[in-house]
Design a protein that fits this description.
One of its GO terms (biological process) is phosphatidylinositol phosphate biosynthetic process. By secondary structure, this protein is of the alpha+beta class. It contains nine helices and 14 strands. It folds into two domains: about 45-200, 2-Layer Sandwich (Fructose-1,6-Bisphosphatase, Chain A, domain 1); about 205-320, D-Maltodextrin-Binding Protein, domain 2. The strands form three sheets. Strands 3-4-5-6-7-8-9 form a seven-stranded mixed beta sheet, with helices on both faces.
């Protein structure tokens, strides 16, 4: 039953995954700019440093994006945890370009760097690497050089650079760059969320309802079988209540699209910090809500995530929990 429903959902997603939905632009900020630095949003974080961080992150993301455009459809050099978890030479090239920018700007300063390509595959390695990195420095760069590698390998224009920066474990700046659409999403703690310099807010969809739900919800199709089952159960359980589902293949893009109002919500039961950090801050600064799929507060260590415009968040949590879609399975449950 789940397999049949999954196929129907995939067909719906592929039919209109890249349809353009204009962002929800706030009319309270008409002039074009990057997200302003936080002032006292995170205790102890220096506003001038955050300005430098955001400027460096945007430069670095655009350099990585140039590489992605030039090398789209790159050959797979190996797989990670399983044949669905892919790596290309361009992932490493993009990460090196980002780190070079960070090292040049913050030479001699205490800035740690956690990039996906420096961490062994698997959730245990990711959790350990995050803990070590958070403890090693006040400022931590959390980087996914190509979020949506499978899309990238197939030359599908749905991949992004994701860069989040935390101060003592709390996110203070982030950017997601989609080089194919030349869309740069930026945010700072307390400073709002922006798309190409224009302030954005989450969408207005009010609630889930039994017949004409307004919510457009995205879900993941993770490579691991322990996460795939909860994803599929969550989609099947929620589908009668929402307008439609999308599966775009890039967590960073789906989170950014929630922040700018193109999507109402996005959930996935197992993601790494580098998949989520920048997008989580975008949603929070755009007026949305970011939690664990069970409704508990989001932090850098949260792997099961639900980001939404906030207006139907509790209803979505209740559905995911009831469908046993908020946590990883202990053994594969797909059929």
């Amino acid at each position: 039953m789940i397999q049949r429903s999954f196929l129907l959902l995939v067909a719906s997603a592929l039919s209109s995954a890249h349809a353009f939905i204009p962002p929800q632009v706030s009319h309270h900020s008409a002039h074009v700019r990057l997200a302003p630095a936080a002032t006292a949003a995170v205790a102890g974080a220096d506003p001038t440093t955050i300005e430098r961080i955001l400027a460096t992150a945007t430069r670095a993301a655009k350099k990585a994006g140039e590489l992605m455009i030039r090398e789209a459809g790159a050959e797979i050099i190996k797989t990670k945890t399983n044949p669905k978890d892919l790596l290309t030479k361009v992932d490493g090239m993009c990460q090196d370009a980002i780190k070079a920018e960070v090292d040049a700007e913050f030479e001699g300063e205490q800035h740690a760097f956690l990039g996906e390509e420096n961490v062994a595959p698997g959730p245990e390695a990711s959790i350990a690497a995050l803990k070590e990195a958070v403890d090693s420095s006040d400022y931590l760069w959390i980087v996914d050089p190509i979020d949506g590698t499978t899309n990238f390998c197939h030359a599908m224009p749905l991949s992004a650079v994701s860069i989040g920066v935390a101060y003592r474990g709390t996110l203070v700046a982030g950017c997601v760059y989609d080089p194919y659409a030349d869309e740069l999403f930026t945010a700072t703690a307390g400073g709002g969320a922006f798309l190409n310099g224009k302030k954005v807010v989450v969408g207005p969809q009010a609630s889930l309802c039994a017949t004409l739900g307004e919510a457009l919800v995205a879900g993941g199709a993770p490579p691991g079988l322990l996460a795939l089952g909860p994803c599929m159960r969550g989609m099947v359980a929620m589908s009668p209540h929402v307008r439609s589902f999308r599966m775009l293949g890039s967590a960073a893009i789906m989170l950014a699209w929630v922040a700018c109002g193109r999507l109402t919500a996005y959930f996935e039961p197992d993601l790494n910090a580098w998949d989520v950090a920048a997008g989580a801050l975008l949603i929070q600064e755009a007026g949305g809500l970011m939690t664990h799929c069970n409704g508990t507060p989001y932090s850098l260590t949260t792997r099961s995530i639900l980001g939404s415009n906030g207006r139907a968040h509790k209803e979505m949590v209740d559905i995911l929990v009831a469908a046993e879609a908020a946590e990883l399975d202990t053994e594969p449950r797909i059929g």
